[in-house]
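Summary for the funding panel

The consortium committed to producing paired sequence-structure records for every protein in the target list. Below we show the first two records in order, beginning with the earlier of the two.
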Amino acid sequence: MKIAKITLNNFRCFENMEVKFHPRLTILIARNGAGKSTLLDAIALGLGPFLTRLPGVSGLSFKKTDFRIKPDGKQPAYMRIKCESFSGVVWDRTEKRDKSKKTLNAIPPAVGLKALNKHVDTFINAHNDGEHYTLPVFIYYGTGRGVFDVPMRKRDFKSTFTRFEALDGALESRTNFRRFVQYFYGLEERENRLQKEQRSFDIELPELSAIRLAIKRLMPQFSNIRSVEPAGIMVDWEKQYVAHDSDADSQIKLTPLPESSNIKKSEIHQLKIEQLSDGYRTTLAMVMDIAARLAEANPFSSDPLACEGIILIDEVDLHLHPEWQREFMPRLVDVFPNLQFIVSTHSPFILQSVKEGELIDLDQLNVNHTPDLGKEMSVEDIAQEWMGMDNVQRSALFNRQVEAARRYYALLNSGKSEDDPQVAALSEELDRLETYFGDNPVYVALLRAERRKKTQEAK
């Protein structure tokens, strides 16, 4: 199941909003406060009834703070999230301001959850009848995914998990790494028992195989994922580096991706996952969690990584090196070819991998005619044309000085004198800013000469 369209009414900052999604990858951009996280939250809420229809699975509910506040400070009569899947399933969920007759009369007719419930019941019925079915997964990774709770010991660890539990709490934006550790421990114990019983280390559980394969495909510098006592996860990290000819012992360059042709040496480090850098830790944990939930939801699949679902990621560039940002989304989509990813970003490097139809600018809602940015635009072009930044080749300090000089000369050209308060203030600002460009004496000299010329002309 993949989401084709969402319509929002009176949800937080959106009065009325409709967004269409790409079946594989949609990247959301906008200025801060324009609603990227709100849209991801709305999708999670829209998918919530799918989860709560399943036995023993918790979803998400509306909160009063989700109501849009009108300019007069009042709440509208209702808020609504309407979703449509690519397979044609349409549903909505509505929250009323109150139960008064006036409020009820102000709410337009709803589609309701009938079609969605009918769709979810096909999975429940197949499960109860022992029939084969493929269960989609829905997961939301918020900006707090870099902070997760690693258990200190195996107290009260669950040993068994049902298929439906793969979706339990998965749409809450906080990361539940403790759950993954419990799931991994249970699988590892089963695999160890089978290996001992059959006296073969070649025995591998398909669920663990899926997790290991996902890591190998996306982050091949990590391997041999395993549990450690008293609790936790450890990996082997192949730390690759380049030794420079001038100083081979002291100068090394770590490479975020292993394909570099300059790699000369490598070292194996055994590290607990919490000892990794923020970028490696959050990405590794997310990839393992996606693979684990896919395998848990579909234990009889010959290729769990190819199962369907929807993954929401807020600020997908979080903690990632720019070199990795450029390649991250294409690699992630390749590892999970049938998942639909809907992500937000502020990074022009992420946008360099965007193909036609995959970009949504919430400031413009220009959905249908996005170019293949990676083929047509540089990072500077993307930052200027799609992120509203000016003169990105220059520093913010330089741009500030240019703007101050522009306003200064404009005032002098308009007939203002140096004694004018505005001119004097801008002159002082230019004096301060010039000190930052002392390493460019030609530029400073030209600016001062122009200021003297304009001052003399004004007199």
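The next record, for a separate protein in the list, is shown here:
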Amino acid sequence: GDPIEIKSTKIRGIESNGMICSESELGIGDNHDGILVLEEDAPVGLAADSYFKIETDTQYEIGLTPNRADGMSHIGVARDLLCALKHQQLADQGEYVNWPSVDEFKIDSHDVKMNVAVKDPEKCPRYAGIAITGVNVAPSPTWLQNRLRSIDLKPINNVVDATNFVLHEIGQPLHAFDLSKIKNNKVMVQTLPGKTKFTSLDAVERELDQDDLIICNENEGMCIAGVFGGLEHGVSENTKDIFLESAYFNPVSIRKSAKRHGLNTDASYRFERGIDPDKVVYALKRAALLIQEVAGGSVASELIDLYPKKLEPFKTQLDLLNLNSVAGTSIEAGTVRNILNWLDIEITAEKDTVWQLQVPAYRVDVKREIDVIEEVLRIFGFNNIPLPEKINASLSYSTKPDREKLQNIVSDLLSNSGYSEIMANSLTKGEYVNMVPTDELNPKDSITMLNPLSSDLSVLRQTLLFSGLESIAHNLNRQESNLKIYEFGKGYAKKDGTYKESSLLSVLLTGSKADESWNTNQEEVSYYSIMGAVSSVLNRLGVSENRELKEKRNGVFDEGSELLIEGAKIAEIGKVKKEILEKTGIKQTVFFAELQWDIILEGMNNHSIAFQPMAKYPSVRRDFSLLLNSEISFSEIVEIANKAEGQLLKEVGLFDVYEGKGLPPGKKSYAVKFVLQDENATLNDNRIEQAMATILKQLEKKLGASLR
């Protein structure tokens, strides 16, 4: 427990300079019910640590990277440390890691006949076990309790403590079952039907998945393999006989099961990273001997070892020229040979500078040549690589446009406009695409993961829409209702048998334009708010000419449009369908825009910045109130007006929309401004009248528009 400071204090008015403690307060046991009473023959004056046989110890916390499963034990650390000490000539070349001997292990009898079957060898390549009878389950001896407490493990009982000791000693998880709970001594390693109920050791009833690997008896599941034991089948104070299990489980299977059930145990932590399959039986024997030492009992069955297809050591190669190229120095072949030997990496063949290697099974992180190079340099010591006397450099050349620079420019623009950048996972739910079957988002085009971590991360996203909606839903649940976000990300799809990756920029708006304040109106964001953001981005990039806006309605938008340049779609903008928002837990309007970043940048390859003087001649504005059918969009007016008078017309703007009383059914009124300007002369009334007449004639002809 936490340290307790013993100091002078008053109890009922009388000063006390000491404290009478319980086992728990002294940190030597779990009993806190009363004062610890020593034996009558306890020698007065003897140091407490000597009397209680407490060893002075030093604890090191080692920050392992997730790929170094081989270092998740005391022997694993010692093995790696010895390599470095040998290279530094701080240890004899003949020294080796002293693995505890299991020579004394023996089968005492064959009284117990175990029937063990592995029905899914892909998820469980190796499974071993033995029966031990006549054990006396009790608190562990002091030395074992102290060893476990020194690494912050709470002692449970002598059998469980022995398995935990071996786990941390050599890195092999084990599990002990109460043999009396295994009907007919039948153990099956298999999966169970989905939604099967299972009560785990923490008394939580869990619903199993059809892919969870389960250790079963004849009737029911006893343990989620490699993850967590069952409540009714573990070792208790009434246990007399046990079945001890040691196995190698598929890391992917364990990781998925642990994630599904929200469990992270010492066993799953190791299994999901990969343990040494060659130490399964050794660990079983080591644990059996330790259990016999602290709990008694005898081995009463054959040692079962089901290993139908041996996991072969991984093979790779090392080219010494590549090693020296990466290192930036020349390392002698003899030094490399020694380091590989200390790392248990066997050289099976040599040809010139290329060595064929066999990597031990416990080094699951060494798969490629560069991994071997990293291992050699790690033991050699990065500090031992001399710094060069000169640095070779070359002038860099970047193609136009500079993608990273432009992305930073746009990020600064949006961030300065009050937007927050998000970063989301490229893996998402497969069900999202089924919500919006469109030409662009087809479930058949989804790229599905072969071994997804979970159903929430099963496909690569085609669009940034749903990651943005997830972010909005997350923030809305935390009372943040006014949101402006953007994301640079990738979209993935399989079109005509070809995998395609595209760079995208998404922008999402919801809530009010500004936070609530005494001097601002709570005006909701609109289509024009997000259209303004898109226009700002394109204008900043210089993509402002020849933009064509078309109405777009599909499975994503209730109201939307798409932007094109020379026929190529560069963006989609609109109001997200209410059905989609409801399925993602959002109850307020959301506007979404997605820009095709690759296409925009590709169009900028030929873009050049040219000087353009300020206009010498004034512009002229004309306002008209147009009566149109309700289904006609403003974008159609803009498109027709620009085609009718492309030379003088500089701007078309909408400043009022009216529908309702005083208008015929199915009609609406648009108040539109038209800005005209001639760059070479001042416009006269005749020229203005002629231009506006041309525009109005085309609007009447193509849209049935009339002046109010």
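Regarding this second record: The longest strand covers residues 483-495. The two ends are 85 Å apart (CA to CA).
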